[in-house]
Predict the structure.
Amino acid sequence: MLKIFSIAAAAAVVAASSVSAEGFPERPINLIAPFNAGGGTDLLLRGLAPHFAEAIGSDAYVSNMAGGSGTVAASALQAQRPDGYQLAYMSVTVSTIQPQIKNVPYGIDSWTPICSIAASPTMLFVSGDSPYQNMDDVVAAVKAAPGELVYGSSGPGAITHLTMVSAFAGLGIIDDMKHLPFQGSGPAIKELTAGNIQFFGDTELLVERGDFRPLVVFNDARVENFPNVPTATEVGIEAPLNELYLWGGLFAPAGLEPEVTAKLEAACAAAVVSEGFQEFAANSGTVVNYRGAEEFNDFYRAQYDANAALIEAAGL
Amino acid sequence: MLSSLPEAVAILLSLEGLLVLVVGTILGIILGAMPGIGSTVAVAIVLPFTLTMSQAPAIILLLAVYAGSVYGGSIAAILINTPGTPQSAATCLDGYPMAQRGEAGLALGWATVASVIGGLVSAVVLIFAAPQLAAFALEFGPIETFALILLGMTCIVSVSTGSVVKGLMAGMIGIFLSTVGGDPILGEMRFTFGNWQLFAGFNLLAVVIGVFALSEVFMRASTKQSTVSELVSFNGIVLPSLSMWKGRFKNLAKSVAIGNVIGVLPGTGAATAAFVSYAEGRRSSPNGDGFGKGEPDGIVASEAANNAVTGGALVPTMALGIPGDAITAVMLATLTLHGITPGPKLVEDNPVLIATIFSGFFVINLLLLPLGMLLSRVAAPILRVREAFMMTAIVILCAVGIYFVRGNVFDLLVMGGAGFIGFLLRRQGFPMAPLVIGMVLGPTLELTLRQGLILTDGNFLAFFTGHPIALVLGITAVAALLLPVVRSLQKRGTA
């Protein structure tokens, strides 16, 4: 009796879920920004949400759940039912770095990647009045005065920190330098201008914010706006430290039904190419980089493993 | 920039300009007065609307909401002893006792005039001295900021009404609460017991609302009172007459200056300014002995300083492209979305825009006075409802506000817990303002101390030998602690 009941229950569950996949979406979709309102992630999601909603034929709203470098929102999401109504925009750090340095309740297998949306290579830069013209100058200066020069970051484990680690561990001089973490890129840039730190790294968007001189870009090729800045490979930084991207995309909890994934993926693709989002991206300096669910899943997993090397080099 | 002023005024006087100025300021005051919303959230609420506006009105709207909310915070602080924002926590200390005496309208009058003057002066400073002040901000590295925060910490003594020892203990509790969560230098988790909800630490706003507003509700519920009594008698703002200002100008001027200077320094903020100014006011004001018992100078010190911060915070934002706090960071993001690159060349490249923003900011502060008076008149009947209803409304407003900020149920638990513990502590005579100071200043104190130790290779003495600004601030901090002791010893000697 019990057996029959459980089979019937299982059948009912299957039936119910297949119905929900077919009729998806029946209610508004929550796009979670794991950071505060007004930050880069929040704005990107708010730029995307109306176009995403239009494409999926339902409402989509942005909610903010900040804290713990994005881990609070990710931890909350992994405990949710994988029904496709809760998606988070997670960056490289939230999805691949934080779970390897913190004891969070999620890991590599906790997600159904939907699509990647943006990716920007990071750059290492110095203040405009800095004596260092290239990385050779930097290596020579560090070797001449070990333990003197300071690099900043927007926080331990942040993409800004990993940029510095990639550069200086890749050139073998990181042990002779000091790391000064700040809370956010703003204060770090102020200290770079004031001269309390000598090096900082972030995306192209931040380099253009002030009188800064980029020395190296962590991309597979030189970037259009800075044709004179060499790639990490060119200055002698070897894989896997030679490429570093601040990327992000939409994730759902693991176990999402393939039909729902496909619908969300298609909506994401349509939203990303929409005229409105493209205009938003151009204004906000967002480097659009779309990948579909399958491709994004491979990319995400490869990044997860590649970043393990970075984390070890950073001593995190 | 000044040559662009006529064009700027034309933009402000356009229909869109006027609408944004008035609506933004009203919205800001209302949102700031709602417990738990706070300036950051208030600005975030209107952010989506700015995306479809043109450049100048978008920023003006954000500024109006920002300045309005900082002022609005004082309304709830005075009328219901609930700081709408952490920066108006110091306003509660004298504002609420005045309201309890039946002088709520006058208390708000002091707060309004002080806010307006603080904001106006900071607008003028912003217009004429932004580049110079920005250069000054660059002089303030981690070590100088550490010394300033150290000085700020000495405020714990001056806001400890009743018992200094209990105040210090409350301050330590606040500092301890602020250490929960990620280590700012190493990134490791502290005191979270493996619970990911604590990865972000305790939400400051949830704790502030808990220990001030919720504990107040518990206090009232636990004491027997007639159920029909009105909370406070309030019929709108009563502006203090000129003769009442006699002997208070020095306090006002000092508070405005403190707010301006602290506002310019990134990473400190309005709450720090309000507390430092309050402490300085108590030390130097001829009415200092009345602080904490409903002394107008206390309200003036807190409100003039926290509103002066708004202009100050715009200095590094506009002159250097470095946001002074979370709110100015939102403004920079908005500029970026409108295709403007914030940075050192912002003023040079966009003279009309900047002139519009700066002169708009001046107008917003002028508007605070009439709009504040108007809104308080509208709000007065709301306060006449029965206390039981009022208290229920406060609890609901607080809960909605706190949940809204981060969408996290855990924050509600934190608020409830803080309310209950705050209630127990207050019954034992522990003042709550020191706890808030500890929690506000604790993280910056720790971060800058450890940054400084990295820079000096662990040599704490080098903080003061190599940094004259830090030395002066450090000596002032020590003097602020020792002077009362010396004075009381002197008194004992002569007696």
